[in-house]
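step=predict obj=Prolyl 4-hydroxylase subunit alpha-2 n=453
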Amino acid sequence: MNKYDSSESNTSFIMLLFVKFTLLNLTLCLLYHSTASEVFTAIVDLEKLLYTEGEVIKTIEKYIEMEEKRLQEIRKLKDEYGRLHQVASKDSQSFLENPINAFLLVKRLSTDWKVAESLMLKSAGQAMIQNITQTRDDLKFPEDEDLTGAAEALLRLQDTYKLDTSTLARGQISGTKPSHELTAHDCFELGRQSYNNGDHYHTILWMQEALDRVDEETNKTVDKSDILEYLAFSTYMQGNTRHALKLTNDLLELVPNHPRAAGNRAYYEDAIRNAAHMKRGDDGDVQLDGDVNYSESSKMDTELSEREQYEQLCRAESSTNFEEQKNLGCDYFSNSHPYYILQPIKREIVFKAPKIFIFHDVVSDREIEVVKYLAQPRLKRATVQNAKSGELEYASYRISKSAWLKNEEHPVIYKISQRVEDLTGLTVSTAEELQVVNYGIGGHYEPHFDFAR
C-alpha cells in the first residue's frame, strides 16, 4: 500500500465513523419521538413509523450518495496528484525546466488544492487539513500571489518566444520535454489571471483555447458559461463588439437566466447602434466592425525597439549581419598572465564594438556546487530602487532571488574573484560582492542601467 492508498483508507475509515455517528443520531431522534408519542400502543402509529423509516432510508441513501460522490472527487484529485508527482519525481530538475510543468505544480498546490480542501472540510477531513496546513512546519504551500506569478511568467514566455497558444496548451515547448496537456480549466485559469491583470489580449487567447478544449472533454473541468462570459467581455474590450454580442447570445442560449448576460447583451446592442450611427456614410451603408481573428500575430506592436532586440536575444536570434559575424570567432586567451600561458582559457568573441566576450569553462562543476551551497540559504527576492522615493521594492520586471558572497567566506569565492581579475585585468576590490541569482518561472530582468539617473 502506498502513501496515497493509506490516505484514502484513513479518509474512508473516518467517513465510516461519521456515517455511523449520523445513523446513531437519527436512531436516537426516532426513539425519542416514538417514546414521547407512545406509538407502540397503536398499530396505526407503527404504520406511520414505517413511512418515517422509509424517509430515513432515503435520507441516508442521499447522504451516502453525496459522500461517495465527494470521496470519488477526492480520489480523482488524489490520483491526478499521484500520477503527475510520479512523473515529476523521476527527474525533478528536467520536469521543472518546462514552464508548463512549473505552472501546473503551483496550480495543483493552490487552486486545485483549494478544491480538495473544500471537499475535505465538508466532513471529518477538517482535522486532517488542520494537521497538514497548520502543524506541519516542513510543508510550504503557495499563496495566490504565486499562482498569479506563475501565470504571468507563462504569458511572458509565450510573448517573448512567440509561442502558439494551442501548441503551448499541448505542453509542447521547444527545448524542453513535453509536459502534461492543459485542461480546459487550466486554460481558463490562465485567461482569468490575464483578465484580473487587465490583459484582455491574453484573456481572449486562453479563454478561446479553454472553449475549444471544453467541447472535447468528456468530463468537463470548467463550465462553458464561465468561459463565454470572460471571453465576451474581453472581446468587447479589444474593440470587437459584434463578436462580443454573438458570444453573449451563445451564453444566453446555454444559461437563459444568467444574472449578467442579459444586461451585457443590451449594452453591446446599444454600443453597436451608436457605432452604426457614427459610421453611417453618405451612401447610407452601415459599416460595422467584423469578426477579428485573435492570433498571436494580431497583437499591436507598441513596444520599443530596445525591448524587441532584448527579446530577440532571448530567442537566440542573431542581430548581426554577415560582415559582422565573419569577424567573430573563438580563441585561447591568457591575458599574458603567467598562470594561464600554459593553460589558456576558451574565449568567444560575440561582438566587436563594443567588445563583448564569453569565457567558457572558467568555473568547475565542483566550484559551482560550492557557490550554490553557500548562496541557497541566503536567497531573497530581488528588489529594485524606486526612482522617486529611493526605497527598495519588488517589481514585476525583475523576477528572481539573489544572494551575495564575500571573498573571505570561502576559498572558492576568493579563487573565482581572483580569476576574474586575472582574465579581465580589472580589480574586483571596488566592485560588489559575488552575486548569485536564481531565476524562477519565466524569471527575467528587463533591460536597465545600473547607474543612478
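step=describe
DSSP finds 18 helices and eight strands in the chain.
step=end
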